[in-house]
Amino acid sequence: CTSVQRLHVERAVLGDVAATGAGPTARLDAWPDQLGRLLGPPKAVRSFVRATASLDADSQRFIASLPDWEALRQFAPSIVVVALGASDASGEPIVDLARFERGFRTVLDGLAALPSVRRVVVCLPPPAAPTWARAAAYEKNRSQLAPMLSRIGQSTNAEIVALDDMVRGVVPTFVDGVVADAAGGEPIALHVATLLLGERPSRASGIHRELPMPSDLVLRELVAGTTTKGISNTETWTQDGAAIVGTGLDRDRVAVGDVFAH
């Protein structure tokens, strides 16, 4: 393989703590990563996830004031899955819901202003694991946020996804209350993938699995925070093909999250 073709990645997830992963494969099996594997190249997913991101328009952690927001705008996706609100529900009791409503409207208006965006999906905050010490406080905040997010989302023609039924029965796999490990994120990724495709994906699961490396290719899945420098034949590659780097490529010019086909 001496050449590669750069493919357009058109889907993005804008999320907070509930879109991060947990467990030994957290960096590979957060549900947005599983979603990318279910969709497969070239319909992969770029994640813009910050665990502490907030919808509070007056907060320093307001998502639209963070670098992740500008990065998403520059990326110019056509489909955006918004998964925000869990970080806010995990915090102090919500006193002024209007600040969160204003922040959410800012996010949706900002997405609507992007010429590339033609579809927005809003995932409501997931329920907390009942064994979590802060479950009651979280659910009280969520009971205020979720109806507001649904109402405003519907008013802008966003598609609303409630995660309650999806994670029921797999709640024990949620770590720190609302952070899904590989098993907990699997039904979320599958549901969102089915919604985006209009049918169930051909793959039954998006959980990361490694395969032996073919001798004629140098491959590596690009994960946020990693580098493509020093790729060698001792690396492993993943069956999803989320990022394939050929031996003839100038690896220093590969961006994290780029998708290739050989």
Describe this structure in words.
With 262 residues, the chain is α/β, with parallel strands linked by helices. 32% of the residues lie in helices and 14% in strands. It is built from eight helices and eleven strands. The strands form four sheets. A five-stranded parallel sheet has the order 3-2-4-5-6, sandwiched between helices. A two-stranded antiparallel ribbon has the order 1-11.
Primary descriptors:
262 residues; alpha/beta; disordered N terminus; two-stranded antiparallel ribbon; 11 strands; five-stranded parallel β-sheet
Please work out how many helical segments DSSP would assign. Answer: 8
Taking pLDDT < 50 over at least 5 consecutive residues as the criterion, the unreliable ranges are 1-7, 211-262
Strand content: 5-15%
Structural category is alpha/beta
| Helical amount | 25-40%
Q: Which value, in Å, is the CA radius of gyration? A: 18 Å
In order across it, which strands form the biggest sheet? 3-2-4-5-6
User: How far apart lie the N and C ends?
Assistant: 7 Å
**Secondary-structure element order, N to C:** EEHHEHEHHEHEHEEHEEE
Main sheet characteristics? 5 strands, parallel
Oligomer: single chain
Topology, number of strands: 11
- Mean pLDDT over all positions: 78
Net shape: globular
